[in-house]
Specification:
30% helix, four-stranded antiparallel sheet, 9 helices, single chain, 6 strands, alpha+beta
C-alpha cells in the first residue's frame, strides 16, 4: 500500500514538473510570483531560518544530547523514501468521545500558546510536546523567524483544507451509494397515509425533500454557528425579511443616526506588551 502511494505521488509530481525527472532549468512559478513565500515554504520544510542574517541556518534547539529511544512504527504504520503513513486510528461505531478527540486533533491550532514563552533576551522559546530523536525538547526563534514559520502555515486563498479520497472523493462513482441523499419526512408520510382515504388524488408515496442548497445564506450561517436567529423580530417574534441591501457609507450613516444607533465603531485599545516569562534553560 505504501509503495503504491509513493509511486503515485512521484508520478503526479513528475507530471506537474515538480519531480526528480523534471527539467532542472525549469523555475518554480511560485518562486517567480511570490519569492518570499517560496523561501518561507522551503525553510519551514527543512527546519531552517528563512530570513535575516542567519538565513539558511538550522533553527536553534535545546535539549540533552543523549540516546533517545526511537519509537518504531506500530501496526498499519510505514516509512518509505521520506514518506510516512499512519493508518492505525480506527473509531468504532457510536464512539462519540473518540470521534470528538479525533476532531480536536485534526482541528488543533499550529501553536499551543501554553508551550510558548519569551526569554529575557527577547527571543521566543517553544516547548515540544515530545522529545525529538536528537534529544531536543525546545526550539528557540527570533520573533521574525517565528512569524515566518507561522506564515508558511497559512493556506492560500480558496485552498481546500480537507480532502476526501476513495468512495468519498467528489469524482467517485460509488459516492452516491455512501453519501446520504434527501430523505422523506416521516411526518409527511403519516399525514399522507391518514388522508389517502379522504383524497383519492393524494400523491403517494410523497416525493423526497429537495436537497439543501450548497451555499447557506448569512442568516442561516449565523443560526448554525452561533445559535442566533438574526431574522427573528425581538419585539413580536415574527419573521423579518430583507427589503434591500444598502452599500453606500453615507446612506448607512444617516440611517443609523436617525435610528439613534452609533454609526462609528468603538475605539480600539492599544496593544499591551506582555511581560517576559522567565525560563531556565537546562545545563
Amino acid at each position: 500500500m505504501m509503495k503504491r502511494i509513493v509511486k503515485r505521488i512521484k508520478r503526479l509530481l513528475d507530471r506537474r514538473g515538480l519531480g526528480f525527472q523534471s527539467d532542472p532549468n525549469d523555475v518554480d512559478p511560485l518562486l517567480i510570483e511570490q519569492p518570499l513565500l517560496a523561501e518561507l515554504y522551503g525553510a519551514s520544510v527543512q527546519g531552517r531560518v528563512a530570513t535575516g542574517s542567519k538565513a539558511g541556518e538550522r533553527i536553534a534547539t535545546v535539549g540533552f544530547e543523549e540516546e533517545f529511544e526511537d519509537k518504531k512504527g506500530g501496526r498499519r504504520c510505514a516509512n518509505l523514501s521520506g514518506f510516512s503513513l499512519h493508518a492505525n486510528v480506527a473509531i468504532p461505531a457510536k464512539a462519540r468521545h473518540q470521534l470528538e478527540m479525533l476532531c480536536r486533533y485534526v482541528a488543533r491550532p499550529p501553536v499551543a500558546m501554553e508551550c510558548l514563552s519569551k526569554l529575557p533576551d527577547g527571543r521566543v522559546i517553544y516547548q515540544l510536546r515530545h522529545r525529538w530523536r536528537n534529544g531536543a525538547t525546545h526550539m528557540i526563534f527570533e520573533p521574525l523567524d517565528l512569524i515566518g514559520k507561522l506564515a508558511a502555515l497559512v493556506p492560500p486563498p480558496r485552498f481546500n483544507l480537507i480532502r476526501y479520497h476513495g468512495v468519498l472523493a467528489p469524482a467517485s462513482r460509488l459516492r452516491s451509494s455512501v453519501v446520504p441523499s434527501a430523505s422523506v419526512d416521516v411526518e409527511e408520510i403519516n399525514n399522507a397515509q391518514n388522508t389517502t382515504h379522504q383524497h383519492d388524488n393524494a400523491e403517494w408515496p410523497p416525493k423526497p425533500k429537495a436537497p439543501h442548497p450548497r451555499n447557506y445564506c448569512w442568516a442561516e450561517l449565523m443560526r448554525r454557528v452561533f445559535g442566533l436567529d438574526v431574522l427573528k423580530c425581538a419585539e413580536c417574534g415574527g419573521r423579518m425579511r430583507i427589503l434591500c441591501a444598502i452599500n453606500v457609507q453615507e446612506a448607512i450613516k444617516k440611517i443609523l443616526d436617525c435610528l439613534g444607533i452609533p454609526s462609528k465603531p468603538p475605539p480600539i485599545s492599544p496593544a499591551i506588551l506582555a511581560d517576559a516569562f522567565e525560563f531556565a534553560l537546562p545545563d
